[in-house]
Amino acid sequence: MPSGNAIDFVPADLDPAADLKDLEANKGETEHVEHASVKNEEGDLGFAISEDNSKPRTGLRRLLRRNPSAEFLREVAEANEHELDPVEVKKVERKLFWLFVPALAIDYAFYYIDKTTLSYAALFGLKQDLNLHGTDYSNLSSIFYVGWIIWAIPGNLLMGKFPLAKYLSVNIFLWGVFLMAQGASQNYGDMVGLRFVSGMFEAVADPCFVALTGMWFTRKQQPTIIGYWYSFNGVGIAFGGLIGYGIGHIGSSLPSWRYEFIIIGAACSLWAIFMGIVLPDAPHTAKWLTRREQIVVVSRKRHDYHNVDRRQFKLDQVLETLKDPKTYLYFLLGTFANIPNGATSNFGTLVIKGLNFSTMQTTLLQIPYGAFIAFMIYMAIYVNHLTHRFNVRTILMASVTVLTVVGFAMMAFTKQTASRLIGYYLTGSSNAVFVLALSLVSGNVGGVTKRVLASASIFLGVALGNIVGPYSFLDSEAPTYHTGIIVCMCSRAAEIVVILALRLCFVIPNKSRDKKFAEGDERYDPDVQVFEDMTDKQNLHFRYVGKFRCLAQN
């Protein structure tokens, strides 16, 4: 059996290489895979999604993603007929771990350092040099996410057309280019335009990170893997503080805030080149793996709730998504979680400096903040691992969010510097919550079209929250920003309500389906895997994760 020493998580429909097979029999009737074994009454496997690799590509088509060949899909299906050697699986998974996790972790560190450069630049005089007044600084914070939200859908559509790792690498390279360009800004208008374009190229980051994780790692492994790379936003914050401290000591006629953009931007672009060379785009094209290892990578995911990525638009799934209350709860979750994020990522250093710390002390105080974030993420992963048999992920999310409410309350209502600083650190607990939130969205939506739209709903909420958040920090209230901190506290409290509402949306259908299966209705058997493009509502075998313990996990 494949190793499963991690946590229950999400099906990997985002997997562009998971075009395993089109197991349809009798002119389109849904074909099931019982107890993770492939069956076909005719004895033939129909591979509807494959590519004829015998014909060389020409022109721009050479840049497009390659689907697996029919031969590769056939070999995977044959492997699925037998149990894999656990030793062989472990060896392959070890190779995948050391190839992908460090790369994605460093990517995410840069991703977060990039987002906080404006905050550090403000410490080093950007507001004065660019003559920013009133809401100008908030505009610079928010315009990034305006570009993000405008390019989110086109960027994600392109993600489905190009090799995934290469596409991410190109976007990271462009982050760096436009970050360096921000260091050359001469006025407010320059910075607005460059921040807008930077937001566009970062719009694909989270979806690409999640897609790569879903492509290479199993359902049980994915929350742990996501936790590892996501924890590096804490590393990014801590490292950003060190970089800021070093930049503050550069003796030059060039203002320190310009070095902040130039140095970090150059590092991003150089790393992107390395990543584009090293990371494979899909199992069937991975030069770092033997043919047998490629087969094992895909076959070991046979136990996931998985349906074939047909890359087609289904209107019925669109309508179901619009009628599903969870779609709107995902949007609200993204919004309420990121109103505070948009505020603290851009105003956090200014709030700390307002506690009578110097600029250099403020940069250094970001190091324990980043370390605490990483610690909380690892703790959330560990506790989730200990409690995964009880499937109480939503309860864990709500409990950790309470810490952030307490943190903002300490910042708003206490006067002592120490208690306000501790409160600021506690607000970093929210990062652990978002790791688990990503698993909820991906793991509880079936159907290719519906999953794309549901994922879009939470990320649209993410963008909206980051756009709105900075405007709650009024320039007239600097450096305490009392109104903004109260808004953040209330937003976190609302997030708890949304999480508990989602829990109900998972518990009720699960109990109903488990009851019907217990009464003898085989249509609700959770051990039957469906390889057809069906939604979580259409697929009666589907069970939601993050809530009541269901039969599928016994």
Automatic annotation (TrEMBL):
Species, as recorded: Cryptococcus neoformans Tu259-1
Residue ranges constituting the Major facilitator superfamily (MFS) profile domain according to the UniProt record: 100-512
GO CC annotations on file: membrane
Compartments where located: Membrane
One GO molecular-function entry: transmembrane transporter activity
Lineage, top ranks: Eukaryota, Fungi, Dikarya, Basidiomycota, Agaricomycotina
Sequence intervals crossing the membrane: 96-113, 142-160, 167-184, 196-217, 229-247, 259-279, 328-352, 364-383, 395-415, 421-441, 453-474, 480-506
InterPro entries registered for this protein in UniProt: MFS (IPR011701), MFS_dom (IPR020846), MFS_trans_sf (IPR036259)
Keywords tagged on the record: Membrane, Transmembrane, Transmembrane helix, Transport
Membrane topology: Multi-pass membrane protein
The protein, known as: Major facilitator superfamily (MFS) profile domain-containing protein
Pfam families membership: MFS_1
Main subcellular localisation: membrane
Top-level taxon of origin: Eukaryota
